[in-house]
Write a structure and sequence with these properties.
The chain is 49% helix and 4% strand. By secondary structure, it is mainly α. It has a 3-stranded antiparallel beta sheet, with no helix packed on it.
């Protein structure tokens, strides 16, 4: 999908369009992120129009136009309106709009993303373009999100996964999985790699917000790249610099990468419902931490803006220590109470 503002926000009011342009050009957010902001804010503005009696209640909320929303309406929004919106998405919003068996109430993660979108939008309107005097989202807190320990492969599982790769594009696929498992890349980062990003033993990676970081390639990565490049499918002119290409001579897509990872997960006898391309990033991070990489270095490798995000891997190590204690053959040996004889 191409995320071009003029295509997906044609019915957005000018203030929202300007905000999306600001987020991509000034704040450096990716077009995909801007698209998510648009979806979140469009739903919120539709909800506001219903609450204000400005929309036909016979029209489904997802069909309400918002092109007429202006600064006058936005100035009437208060924190209580945002709370009402969060109540709606937390209790009444269907998780799958077109499914007859859908559940209702979005997850804490989805609600947190929408809160982030609202805070950014109203901060822009008050602090940047001064359209509003008061920021209704100024005191808005982000819903707490459950911090589940990420799943990851063991070192033996990872070796077995790499050994399962075969077929016409085995050199390419082996290189892709090797970079995932050794560098902890996001799928979008791997897909965006160019030939010019590989320089001897370093790899330039463009992460979230177009932030660049430099990673060092170990022997396994350099060997995998060296074996892949002679077999690389020559791309079309538009994608001539793409590191990984498809059989159609295009830059390899996110969907293709996710699919091929699932294929090899299955071939390795692992559960494809539990493991994915993103789980390989978790695997790389966990194995690094377990083998002595400090948390600050790991933060740099993974491209996390906040060390708190990286700290999840310390909890994994703590869980491993707990599991080790439980696996002792004497873990459940208890002393029988001695009854003294009279």
């Amino acid at each position: 999908m191409r995320y071009i503002i003029s295509e997906y926000a044609h019915d957005a009011p000018p203030l929202l369009r300007d905000f999306l342009v600001y987020m991509t050009t000034i704040r450096g957010k990716s077009p995909k992120t801007a698209f998510e902001y648009f979806l979140d804010l469009r739903l919120f503005l539709r909800f506001i129009k219903i609450n204000r009696g400005l929309a036909d209640r016979n029209i489904p909320i997802d069909e309400i136009p918002i092109a007429d929303v202006d600064a006058t309406l936005l100035a009437t929004i208060h924190l209580s309106d945002i709370y009402d919106f969060l109540t709606y998405i937390g209790e009444q919003r269907p998780t799958q709009a077109n499914s007859p068996s859908t559940e209702y109430g979005l997850s804490a993660v989805s609600r947190a993303r929408k809160v982030s979108s609202l805070r950014s939008f109203f901060r822009y309107l008050t602090d940047k373009v001064h359209v509003l005097e008061h920021n209704p989202a100024g005191g808005l807190e982000v819903p707490s999100k459950p911090r589940n320990l990420p799943r990851y492969l063991t070192a033996d599982d990872s070796m077995h996964l790499l050994d399962s790769i075969e077929g016409k594009y085995a050199d390419r696929d082996y290189c892709i999985l090797t970079l995932f498992l050794n560098c902890g890349l996001r799928v979008s980062e791997l897909v965006g790699l160019n030939l010019t990003d590989v320089r001897e033993d370093t790899l330039r990676v463009r992460g979230k917000g177009n932030k660049e970081r430099m990673l060092y390639l170990n022997e396994a990565c350099m060997d995998a790249i060296e074996q892949y490049l002679p077999e690389r499918v020559p791309p079309h002119e538009a994608d001539r610099n793409a590191l990984f290409t498809s059989r159609n001579r295009n830059r390899i897509s996110t969907q293709t990468v996710k699919w091929l990872v699932k294929k090899y997960i299955t071939a390795a006898g692992l559960d494809p419902t539990k493991y994915s391309a993103h789980k390989l990033r978790h695997t790389a991070a966990t194995l690094m931490y377990q083998n002595g990489v400090d948390i600050r270095t790991l933060q740099t490798v993974l491209g996390h803006s906040q060390v708190d995000t990286t700290m999840i891997y310390t909890h994994i190590a703590d869980q491993n220590v707990r599991d080790a204690a439980e696996l002792s053959p004497l873990a459940h040996k208890t002393r029988k109470k001695h009854t003294p004889t009279k």
